[in-house]
Design goal:
This protein has 280 residues and is an alpha/beta fold. It is 32% helix and 18% strand. The N and C termini lie far apart (36 Å).
Length: 280
Amino acid sequence: MRPTLLRPLLLLPLLLAAACADAQSIHDRIYQPQTAPLSVAGLPRGATLDQVRTADGLLLRGVEVAGAADKPVLLVFHGNASSADRSVEWFAPLVAEGYGVVAAEYRGYSGNPGRPDAKSLAADADAFYARARALAGTRRVIVVGHSLGGGVAFGLATRQRLDALVTVGTFTRLRAMAPKIARAFVPDDYDNLAAVPTLDEPYFLIHGTADDVVPAQLGNALHVAAAKAHKAGASFVIAGGGHHPDAAVMAAIVDTIAARVAGTAAPALPASVKVYPFGQ
C-alpha cells in the first residue's frame, strides 16, 4: 500500500528559484488527488460506497463499513495523496474486529466533484462526520486524521465535540513543512498547534520516530502543547515507525485508545510502542 506523502513541499525552493511558485502550483503540491473512482474491490467484507451532501451542495462519495453493534465507528481522514478506499484497506485489521469505518473522501479526489482547499475540506469533514454519527447510532465515533488529514480532523474538533480525536503523523502547521522562504506562498496553513489548546475531547497523538515526511519533532511539539494545556489523552510513539505505520501496530494502538475512551481495560501494546500521557 503506497504511503501518503507530503514530500513534494520540499521542492518549493526549486519552484521559487524557477519563478513557478504561484498559488496554483503550490496548491497542486499540497493536494494530489487520486483520479481513479473509489472501489470496494479487495476491501474487507461489508465495505460499501456511501454518499454525503456538503453544506455547499456537493455530492461526495466515500467508503464505509457498518461494523458490529458493540464496537466504535472510526471516521478516517486520509492524507494528501491517498484515498478513502486505501484508508479502509489500512484499517482492515480493525474492521475484522468489528469496528465500523467511515472513510471520508474529499472533493476533487477519486472522481468527486469540486476543488480541494482548507475551507472546502472543512465542509467535507462536516458532512462525513454527520454520516459517521448516523451510522454509529449510540456507538462512539473516534475521529482519525493521518498527515494532512490530521489538519482536517483538528478543524472538525474545533467545530464539534468529538468522542475522541486521533492524529497520525501530523504536523504543527503546514507552513512548518516548507522552507522559510516559501512559507508565505502556502495558501492553506492548517494551524494544528493553535488548535490543541481549544480541544474539548480526549486527544491521542501517534507518531513514528523514523517518520521522514513529518519529522517526529513536530509531533513532539503537539505533545508539549497538549501537556501545557492539560489535555486528556496521550502520545503513542512508535520506535522506528515511519509516516504510514504498520496496520497491525495501528490496530493495537486504536484498540488501546478505544479502551481508554470507554474506561475499560486496555490490551497490551507492541514492544515498539511507548505511551506518554499528556499529564506527565
